[in-house]
Amino acid sequence: MANEEIWKMYRPDVYVHSTSGERFYLRMLLNIVKGVQSFEKIRIVNGVTYETYKATCYALGLLDEDKEWHEAIVSTSQWSTGSQLHQLFVTCLLFCDEKLPTVSLEGEEDSCWIKIPDDLLIPDSVDHVASIVSSTYPDLINKYKDPNYLRNRGILTPTNQTVDEINSYVLNVIPG
Q1: Which of 90, 81, 79 is nearest to 18 (CA)?
Q2: Coil vs helix vs strand at 28
Q3: Average pLDDT in the 36-65 region?
Q4: Taking Cα atoms as reference points, which of 71, 105, 103 lies closest to residue 88?
Q5: Does 172 have pLDDT greater than 90?
Q6: Nearest to 83, CA basis, from 154, 133, 14
Q7: Angle at CA 132, nearest 5°, toward 131 and 133?
Q8: Distance, CA of 18 to CA of 124 (rounded, Å)
Q9: pLDDT tier for residue 66 given thresholds of 50, 70 and 90
Q10: Looking at 6-154, which runs of residues are DSSP E strands?
Q11: Distance from C-alpha of 165 to C-alpha of 128, rounded to nearest angstrom
Q12: Cβ contacts of residue 157 below 8 Å, gap of 6+?
């Protein structure tokens, strides 16, 4: 394949959904392997040519535990909207039940609780709404008039009551 086709897959503004199979694994390789010349050469690891991009990712240790999902969430969070990130997280929950690390609560036999990596969590605090808003909208006081700043962020909530709490908090924080 031509270098031009490789570049189309590598462009940072091109999104490859995590459920798109080999295209997703190719995209993962393009983010890791340097100096790629062809689609065939990217499947070579330590002199061994692998049949698929997924097998190549395994050979490079990219698919141990939950690395591919963590990579997908981290890279997607750099440019996606809140609803796109939510959709990806739901996809992770639906399609990688064997990949997400689970834990058991005391007294439970089966691991059925999903362990979310600490770097994706909002730190504990007394005022949870303030923590969520400051984590999602850093420097809100200085940027609340910028439509792009607001458009590129979102807080997903399970209930309308939580939406009302967050909206009240934000309205009280914004001057005027």
Answers
A1: 90
A2: helix
A3: 84
A4: 71
A5: yes
A6: 154
A7: 95
A8: 30
A9: low
A10: 44-45, 48-49, 102-103, 113-114
A11: 11
A12: 163, 166
Return the pLDDT at 1: 44
User: Alpha carbon of 119 to those of 15, 16, 126, 135: distances in Å?
Assistant: 23, 23, 19, 12
Between the alpha carbon of residue 114 and those of residues 18, 52, 94, 111, 149, the distances in Å are: 19, 29, 12, 8, 31
Give the max Cα distance, the chain. 65
- Residue 169: which pLDDT band, with cuts at 50, 70 and 90? very high
CB 52 within 8 A of CB 126: no
Alpha carbon 90 to chain centroid distance?
Answer: 11
Task: Please check the confidence at residue 43 and state whether its pLDDT lies above 60.
Answer: yes
User: Would you say the pTM of this structure is higher than 0.90?
Assistant: no
**Residue 42 tokens, joined:** 């990217």
- One-letter amino acid at 82 equals G
Confidence class for position 163, pLDDT limits 50, 70, 90:
confident
Q: What pLDDT, in 10s, does the model give residues 78-90? A: 777 777 777 777 7
32 pLDDT above the threshold of 90 = no
Give the C-alpha separation, 9 to 23, whole Å: 8
Distance CA 16, CA 28 (A): 9
